[in-house]
């Protein structure tokens, strides 16, 4: 079986990307990252990719007249890189059907909450402000909604009595790094297969 090739989309610091790259380098994830693409220039995630000798591209969304045109440019770059699966690792854009149809059932995202609770932005703050005792993170397939796709895996993170938001977010990030890499291992091993709603 050939090695699964991931394309990773990022918008920020790329700590989840680093966890993936570290797992590949350590031999604990039998896969490769074919390219990393950011919609924002000069972010830390691009530096992480280049340090691991992974092709790193910037495709600024502001350079395109529509979301669909931007997504079409992403699709072209990812297809040229020969990727099998798309990994959203802190990618802060909602994808259109142009992208979703090109990689149907092969796009996954990590979210810092136990979906379906607290979808959207600032999920850890939402959970913290609500006063939950347990939150966590979710890896899910991406569909046309915001954090509404089929759940693949979750990991619970307790909210400690002395936590402030920063401490809780740090603990969630550590859980994300473990869970994301484990799901990618499952994809590489064929235990998680493409999912298409209604298919």
Describe the structure.
The chain has a 7-stranded mixed beta sheet, with helices on both faces. The relative contact order is 0.16. The chain has 6 helices and 7 strands, in the order E-H-E-H-E-H-E-H-E-H-E-E-H. The chain has 199 residues and is of the alpha/beta class. The protein has one domain: 3-Layer(aba) Sandwich (Rossmann fold). The mean pLDDT is 96. It has helices at 15-26, 44-51, 67-81, 97-102, 123-130, 165-188, and strands spanning 4-10, 31-38, 56-58, 85-88, 107-111, 134-141, 151-158. 37% of the residues lie in helices and 22% in strands.
Topology:
Elements: E1 4-10, H1 15-26, E2 31-38, H2 44-51, E3 56-58, H3 67-81, E4 85-88, H4 97-102, E5 107-111, H5 123-130, E6 134-141, E7 151-158, H6 165-188
Parallel strand pairs: 1-2, 1-4, 2-3, 4-5
Antiparallel strand pairs: 5-6, 6-7
Helix pairs in contact: 1-6
So what's the overall shape? globular
Major sheet: arrangement of strands: 3-2-1-4-5-6-7
Secondary-structure-based class equals alpha/beta
What average pLDDT do the residues reach?
A: 96
Strand content: 15-25%
The CATH class is Alpha Beta
Rounded to the nearest angstrom, the distance between the terminal CA atoms is 24 Å
* Beta strand count: 7
Features:
alpha/beta; 199 residues; 6 helices; Rossmann fold; single chain; seven-stranded mixed beta sheet
Brief description of this entry?
This protein is α/β, with parallel strands linked by helices. The protein has helices at residues 15-26, 44-51, 67-81, 97-102, 123-130, 165-188, and strands spanning 4-10, 31-38, 56-58, 85-88, 107-111, 134-141, 151-158. Strand 2 (31-38), helix 2 (44-51) and strand 3 form a beta-alpha-beta unit.
């Amino acid at each position: 079986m050939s090695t699964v090739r991931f394309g990773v989309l990022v918008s920020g610091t790329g700590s989840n990307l680093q966890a993936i790259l570290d797992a590949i380098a350590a031999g604990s994830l039998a896969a490769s990252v074919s390219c990393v693409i950011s919609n924002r220039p000069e972010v830390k995630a691009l530096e992480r990719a280049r340090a691991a000798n992974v092709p790193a591209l910037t495709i600024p969304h502001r350079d395109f007249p529509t979301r669909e045109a931007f997504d079409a440019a992403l699709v072209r770059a990812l297809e040229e890189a020969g990727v099998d699966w798309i990994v959203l690792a802190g990618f802060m854009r909602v994808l259109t059907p142009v992208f979703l149809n090109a990689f149907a059932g092969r796009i996954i995202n990590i979210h810092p909450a136990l979906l379906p609770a607290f979808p959207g932005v600032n999920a850890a703050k939402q959970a913290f402000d609500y006063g939950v005792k347990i939150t966590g993170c979710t890896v899910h397939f991406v569909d046309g909604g915001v954090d509404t796709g089929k759940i693949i895996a979750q990991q619970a993170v307790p909210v400690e009595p002395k936590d402030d938001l920063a401490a809780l977010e740090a603990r969630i990030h550590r859980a994300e790094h473990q869970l994301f890499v484990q799901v990618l291992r499952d994809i590489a091993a064929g235990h998680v297969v493409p999912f298409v709603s209604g298919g």
